[in-house]
Design brief:
It contains nine helices and eight strands. A six-stranded mixed sheet has the order 1-2-3-4-5-8. The relative contact order is 0.10. By secondary structure, the chain is an alpha/beta fold.
């Protein structure tokens, strides 16, 4: 199978994927490293990958009331950044839009990065304002069990300034840090109860801030425990 370029037919078939993304994917596929999650998906499930991505852009655009091109621009897409972190972070933000929508959030607004520190999204839930920041643990990251995930998430909030980026709202606003857990080992070996425990310990590591919520998003559903996606403390109390 040729995985050095995107088939021309895909551009006319998957019309919800912005044109910038096709050019970006072509550049990614010409890179020497073939071990990224995107390269694996293109090798093993090429058509399925684009079907899912097309659907994600279509539904994500509908949720935030933007065209796919405008949504991509709001997600601060950088076509010159070809690192695995960048493409997985972009997909992580797309997944966050659906996660928020599926958990009762409305008025979801992606906020383009600027010189001023700001969150990735603002949203409302039952009248309450939320400032939302997202971080994605990439597929190849060596994070598997509780301690490594908690350490990574807490460091993102403390050392990378993601906690302060959620301070742009009113003092009454709630904050939510969404950890998109894409690391293969962590997703495979942790179910809902473990994910809730991780979120709880990240929250406690930050000092149990009352208006802060920690979300773990994997997209995985297990037979025994249902969806792994969770929020701590529960947003139902917010």
């Amino acid at each position: 199978m040729n995985t050095t370029s995107i088939p021309d037919s895909y551009r006319s078939r998957f019309t919800n994927i912005p044109a910038k993304m096709f050019a970006y994917f072509d550049r990614l596929l010409k890179m020497r490293s073939k071990r990224s999650q995107f390269h694996m998906a293109m090798t093993n499930h090429r058509e399925r990958t684009f079907e899912v991505l097309d659907r994600q852009f279509r539904s994500g655009s509908e949720i935030v009331s933007l065209s796919p091109d405008d949504l991509l621009n709001k997600l601060d897409f950088n076509q010159n950044d070809l690192s695995p972190e960048r493409i997985e972070s972009l997909f992580g933000e797309l997944r966050t839009i659906h996660f928020l929508h599926n958990n009762g959030f409305t008025d979801i607004v992606p906020i383009r990065a600027s010189s001023m520190r700001s969150p990735d999204f603002s949203a409302k839930r039952i009248g309450a304002d939320f400032q939302i920041e997202v971080a994605t643990s990439i597929h190849s990251a060596p994070r598997v069990f509780h301690d490594s995930v908690v350490k990574w998430a807490a460091a993102k909030l403390k050392n990378d300034g993601k906690l302060s980026q959620m301070d742009s709202g009113s003092p009454e606003s709630y904050k939510m840090f969404v950890c998109v857990l894409n690391s293969s080992g962590a997703v495979a070996l942790n179910q809902s109860s473990a994910c809730i425990n991780m979120a709880k310990h990240v929250w406690e590591e930050l000092g149990s801030i009352q208006n802060l919520h920690i979300a773990i998003v994997t997209g995985r559903v297990s037979i025994s425990e249902g969806t792994d996606d969770c929020v701590y403390p529960s947003i139902h109390a917010a």
